[in-house]
Structure formats: structure tokens, C-alpha cells
Amino acid sequence: MPLPYSxxxxxxxxxxxxxxxxxxxxxxDPATSQPLANIHTSTSHAVDAAISSASKAFPAWxxxxxxxxxxxxxxxxxxxxxRNDSLAKIETHDTGKPFSExxxxxxxxxxxxxxxxxxxxxxxxxxxxxxxxxxxxxxYSTKNAVGVCAGIGAWNYPIQIALxxxxxxxxxxxxxxxxxxxxxxxxxxxxxxxxxEAGVPPGVFNVVQGGGEVGAYLTQHPSIAxxxxxxxxxxxxxxxxxxxxxxxxVTMELGGKSACIILPDADIEQAVDxxxxxxxxxxxxxxxxxxxxxxxxxxxSAFEKRLVEKMQYIRAGNVFDPAxxxxxxxxxxxxxxxTQYIQHGINVxxxxxxxxxxxxxxxxxxxxxxxxxxxxxxQPTIFTNCTDTxxxxxxxxxGPVMAILPYTTVPEAISRANNTSMGLAAGVFTSNLNLxxxxxxxxxxxxxxxxxxxxxxxxxxxxxxxxxxxxxxNGKRGLEAWTRNKSTLVExxxxxxxxxxxx
Length: 503
Ligand code: NAD
Prior knowledge:
alpha/beta; Aldehyde Dehydrogenase, Chain A, domain 1; Aldehyde Dehydrogenase, Chain A, domain 2; 2 domains; 37% helix; binds nicotinamide-adenine-dinucleotide; Ald_DH_CS_CYS
């Protein structure tokens, strides 16, 4: 039986390259475990060819005026928006995320970032600075493209991650070889075709397919000048170490175990909404998830009562039903990992199970589409009265598993929130804005929210502290990561400070 989607290959020299592989694997629909498409793993020869294509395209693209690059990228953003629903459908099949989410978030936030960087470089974002040093001397600096860059994506926001990397990369005049996650590769060549349709020249955006081996070959390649990686901390360590050998620029967007702190004067309704967004959106597969929910002991019972009441608003099921807001996990290995963590929480950590658990969701047995029984579904799960030493509190689960941690004083909550090697995100819920800012200032995290959770607009620079990453994406600072600086001192009054003058 033919698969729903055509095979995916590498893409370079401005076209799909069917002869770029000798082996293939199948990508799976997580809602049903049905195969979606054959993906052809790029050979090392194909990766070399993609890098060579990007190297050939670099001189012309980097010297194209920024305003012209901007015009082309703006057109690509418009094409993305015009195909929102068809691209969202593909993302829903590939990731299992409900269409209600992919059609309103994934393509939209990717196109926003593309438009943001196009407008930014078109409006002078690549300008350097001029410093009048003395009347007869000045310094000027230029921002320059870095060269051929590698983009390596994770599976939770496939096309959004591809756009968050390629938008500033291309806007700054670089070229890219992008490798999607092997679990969610469907968007990759479609994005390459959209760029081409908008007028991006051949070789500026290229795609290779495959898993860690292909990623490792790409990132260690001597012709790669910068690596932008999104994924687990353990993989990021390997990628950064290999990039260090070639002294390559790196951006590392890694995992987290973020703290969501409900302060004593918080509005309970808002705190519950925030904690739910911080744990169950995208079935908990969001890097910035606030999985450690710190609650004052005095508010614990009111908070938990309302939380359990509101869990009924989580609606799993047909991922294309507009009412569905909770999908399956992305893959079988990830389903096994998350289920094991829930079992560990119950049996080894002995945390108190407030909601959900490791057994299959009860609705699955009566679901009209029997193929759903083969999907990677879990129950949204809440543990309470957790302690900081529990495994489910210390390690990133990357699934819909909330840990509630009661506390007594605000300084205690801050100190416990910071007691982790990771520092991606954090947030507070409170009616006291003075206290909010005081607490935020003490939290060791690169992305923070007050009375909200998860929004990450194009203008906001985001990146982790500690083991959660290096550098930022988005916002003005996000462009700097794709440029290198040249400073030039110009002297009109003779060589300053020379010691070689006649005495
Ligand atoms: P992963 O580390 O398993 O894989 C990420 C990518 O790296 C994949 O494309 C994979 O093929 C590739 N890869 C694997 N080994 C490699 C190697 N040795 N060299 C080069 N590439 C290699 O991560 P994942 O499971 O796909 O994604 C989930 C993780 O991503 C979570 O930890 C999550 O927190 C993190 N994440 C972080 C952000 C952020 O912005 N900070 C955003 C999304 C996801």
C-alpha cells in the first residue's frame, strides 16, 4: 500500500537529490503508529555535496544587499502563511500534536521569526557602529556573515525550529545545511522548496536526512563555520565538544527542568491555568516546561482542588478534531521513556499520585478509530508532595508529568528552584509585581515569565543558562549569533605611539 507522503531525500544545489542515499527508514504517525513516509538517510558523500553547495552559494548570497535578502525572505514568510493549514496537517501527522495547536502555533511562530529577521536586516540590523576616537581618528565595525552553518533540529517543533535557525542565518547572509530530527523530517524539503519559490538561490538552504551519525558527520565537518543545535543536554555536550575542535561558533538550545513558582498572593485560577500550560501543552513536550511547580503549603489544597477540576478540560482523541488539545507522545522510544518515569515516580520515588498514572488512557478502549490503540498515548499525570531528591523532580522527562513541591518561605522556594544543573526557564505567579521582579532577578534561568507561561514571540531573545544552553535565538541578540565582527581603526595623523622616532 502506498504511504501517505512521498519519500524524503537530501536537498542541495536547489533540488531534491534522490540518489543521495543507500538506506532508508520509515517515519511514523504517533497517533496510530502507521507509517507515513520513507526517509532516505544521506550518505557522507551527500553531506559533503550539500556543504559544497552551501559553500558555492555563500559569496553571492552574503554580498547580496540586506534589503534584497529581506525581500526574498518576506516572500517566503508570506508563502508559509498562505500554506498554514496544509503544513500544519503535515506537522500533526509527523509529531502527533493536535491540529488545533499546529495550525495556530507552529507555522505561525516560524513565519513570524522569518518576517522579523527579514525586516530587521532590511532596516539596518546588519549595520555596524562608528566611534569617533579623536578628531583625526575613528573606529568603525562591520557585521559579517560567518559562512556555511549547520542547523540540527529536535522533533517537538520541527518546522518552527527549522525557521528559528534558518531565518536569522539566511537574513545575515550565511548559507545553511539543515538536518531535521529523524523522528519528524517531513517538513524539511517542503521548507527548502518554499525558500526556492520565494527566490532564495540554489545552495543557500540545503537539507540532509538521518539520525545522530549524519548529524555528527555534518557538525564536525571542517567547512562548517557555525553549529546551531536544539536537543538534549547529553547530545549538545557531544556536538559542542566536536565543534570546539574546529573553533566553530555554537548556539546550543538544550533541555530544562524549569521551576513554576506560585507565590503566596497568587490568583489561584491564574496559577492553575499557568501550571497547566507549563506542563500539558504539546503533551508536555516543550523544552521550557515548568515541571517543578512550587506551591506555598497554605495554598496547596485550594490549588490542587482546582487543578484536578480543570484537568477535565484536557481533551485527548482525534488529533484533527478542533476540540482536541492533547495528542500522543512523538515516538515509541519516547513513550517508553515517559511511561518508565511515571512508573518510577510511583514505585521508586514513592511520590503521591494526584492524577493520571502509567496505565493507558481510559478513553482509548472505546475510541472509534481502533488504530489509535497502537499510538503513543499517555495520561496527563500529576504527582504531589514531591521532594527535591526524587528522580522525577531532578531529571527532564519531556512529557506531561507535573511535580508539585510544597514550600514554606519565598527564599526557600527560590533556593530550591535554583538547585538544578539546568537553567532554561522559570516563572512566577503573583499579584505583587514588586515581589515578582525581586524573585525573577534571583532565578537562574534565561527565559522567565510573570503571570504567564510559554509565549515566545519573535522579538524575545531566548536561551538557557547553565547546562541548558549557550547563546540565544530570536530578538536582536539572536541575529548577533549568526555574524562575526570586524573592527577597523582609521588614523589620519600619523602612527600613534610609535617608539621608533628620532630622539
Ligand atoms: P536529541 O538530542 O536526541 O536529538 C536532537 C538532534 O540531534 C536530532 O536531529 C538528532 O538526530 C541529532 N543528533 C543526535 N546525536 C547527534 C550527534 N552526536 N551529533 C549531531 N547531531 C546529533 O534531542 P530530541 O530528543 O530530538 O529533542 C528533545 C530535547 O530537545 C529535549 O531535551 C528538549 O528540552 C530539547 N529542546 C530544547 C529546546 C530549546 O530551545 N532549548 C527546544 C526544543 C527542544
